[in-house]
Amino acid sequence: MKKIIKNGTIVTASDTYKADILVENGVIATISKNITDSSAEVVDAEGKYVFPGGVDPHTHLEMPFGGTVSKDDFETGTKAAAFGGTTTVIDFCITNKGKPLQNSIDQWHAKSKDKAVIDYGFHLMISEMNEDVLNELPKVMDQEGITSFKVFMAYKNVFQADDGTLFKTLETAKELGGLVMVHAENGDVIDHLVNKALAKGNTDPIYHALTRPPEAEGEATGRAAQLTGLADSQLYVVHVSCEESANKIAEARKKGYDVWGETCPQYLALDQSYMDQPNFEGAKYVWSPPLREKWNQEKLWNALKTGELQTIGSDQCSFDFEGQKDLGKGDFTKIPNGGPMIEDRVSILFSEGVKKGRITLNQFVDMTSTRSAKLFGLYPKKGTISVGTDADIVIFDPNVERTISVETHHMAVDYNAFEGMKVTGEPISVLSRGEFVIKDKQFVGEVGSGEYLKRARYGKLTSDTDEAALVE
Ligand code: URP
Ligand code: ZN
Ligand code: ZN
């Protein structure tokens, strides 16, 4: 059925204006003042912002990791994302050395199809770069529309790849039109520091942070940026947690390197002291890179404001406190790394960022939606409000005050990392391709309605038709 979203204030990465939106056949058909159509359902958005649906470029749903599997899957994770104002997620497909990439991609399709309630795509992990991988990648890009590759510089003996693999991946991405993503921490140095800590009997969760210092992140970020310059390629650094890493990205960009940086709400709103709580509570905050000293928060906000960092990912990788995080009682290295962030990503950015005057409203839309859509080959289908684009729309009340809590969240885990935090602003209704997924704060979507997104190569529009639709 057609819908008219009436009297809202539309906010995109560049503009803020009052207008109505007519939604028809899943796309935005008209944007104009005073639209009338007696056959359409009218949705009142007076006093509300109308944002493009959030694009979360960094999730790990139902991912095997740390001796267990992340708790939120493509159903619970995408439902929680929708409640939080996100309508697209790009999840990391984990591959296995020596096995065809397609095996892993098939596994990821099997666990997402018929489950997701919003649209989704995949990034592909690269752990080795050999003839087999080189032969398979063009097909992965053409047929699967997977155009971004993730290299881990940490997690020794698990996911970590060597510098040769990173460099060859950068060269290959340059040739094929892919975007290389890195988890930038020096895994070898961390491994050494971890062994030293354990030998001294330092086993509490706080040692997770103390054995992964900011220098190890800054060094790896700088190394990846230099290799990108050398390969004349393109790089996206995920989950930047500290000044050391943000500075390396800024330095590379000043040199003209094509380097982008993402940070996450947890690094903007939480700090290392959370990991030093008694009764193993600190384990709730164990992820990598770790939380940093509080002063880093303003450095990251400033990097976002000035454009030195560009996007916000959730790095959603949730584990229950009881039954999963407690695998690491008595040995912090066995605590599964990751946290539940998918639902609060947009709200925290709005409340801590826009409401507190750290970023503008249009920057907020750019960071939580538009920029990721552009970088990852989904724009303009996703990431903006414009005639011809998918009607992925969030109707957002900017004034409502609420407290984040496990009691009210929709993720499948038994704690919320932002428990007790007061935020201003909340998504009220959320549409995915013109259909309500959330209506008046209730889930009304359909499990399995989320579509898999084939993405364009780096720097390209989604398709010529999308461009034409916008030009008309
Ligand atoms: O601790 C984290 N971040 N877990 C998810 C995997 C990753 O490194 O992104
Ligand atoms: Zn990572
Ligand atoms: Zn991650």
- By CATH reckoning, the class of the domain at 53-375 would read Alpha Beta
Give a quick account of the main beta sheet: strands, pairing sense, barrel closure.
Answer: 8 strands, parallel
CATH topology of the domain at 53-375: TIM Barrel
Query: How would you describe the oligomerization state of the chains in this entry?
Result: single chain
What is the count of DSSP helices, taking H or I runs of 4+ residues? 13
- Rounded to an integer in angstroms, the radius of gyration calculated over CA atoms is 21 Å
Ranges where pLDDT stays below 50 over 5 or more residues in a row are: 463-472
How many strand elements? 21
Overall body shape:
globular
The end-to-end distance, rounded to whole angstroms, is 24 Å
The chain-level mean pLDDT equals 96
What's the arrangement of strands in the largest beta sheet?
Answer: 8-11-12-13-14-15-16-17
- Name the CATH superfamily classification of the domain at 53-375: Metal-dependent hydrolases
CATH architecture assignment of the domain at 53-375: Alpha-Beta Barrel
Beta-strand residue percentage = 15-25%
Distinct ligands, ions and cofactors found in the model:
N-(aminocarbonyl)-beta-alanine, zinc ion
Structural class: alpha/beta
- Give helix % range: 25-40%
